[in-house]
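Before a colleague's protein record goes any further, I have to sign it off. My question to you is simply how this chain folds and whether the tokens agree. I do not need a full report, just your reasoning and any doubts. This is what I was given:
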Amino acid sequence: GSGRRVFSPAGEFREFSRRQLRDMERLFRQYDAGKDGFIDLMELKLMMEKLGAPQTHLGLKNMIKEVDEDLDSKLSFREFLLIFRKAAAGELQEDSGLHALARLSEIDVSTEGVKGAKNFFEAKAQAINEASRFEEEIKAEQEEKKKQAEELKQRKAAFKELQSTFTQ
């Protein structure tokens, strides 16, 4: 071989889950119209338009330049993944095209990672607890109303009984 190491996304980009890597690969392939394993300037232009964040020609060139390690003026899949790595690390300018790409791609690479998932499940559990507490309060109110209705019925019956003893 030429000594070129085969790129292993899961090996090199350990901060992403296999699912995230699959989503990124799907996105990459979707916009690699030439099916040459690269996203060139025109493909990137189309991608950004589809994502709803069209860029100027210069903007597109700067996006590529920011992650173009081999200086071929196009994005390999590995360079594409660098966009998400930089986004997750908070290394992209808020107003940059790459930031927009990472944000609009719907691939969640928030640096929260495991902590984020934990918070998500805690929030979900809390919501479930609040919902069941709410249901319990409603049940308690209903029980209380039933009890009051029953007591009222008994009082009326007792009153009627008492009344009948007087009217005889």
Remarks:
- Confidence is low (pLDDT under 50) at residues 111-116.
- Helices lie at 9-12, 18-31, 41-50, 57-67, 77-88, 97-104, 113-166.
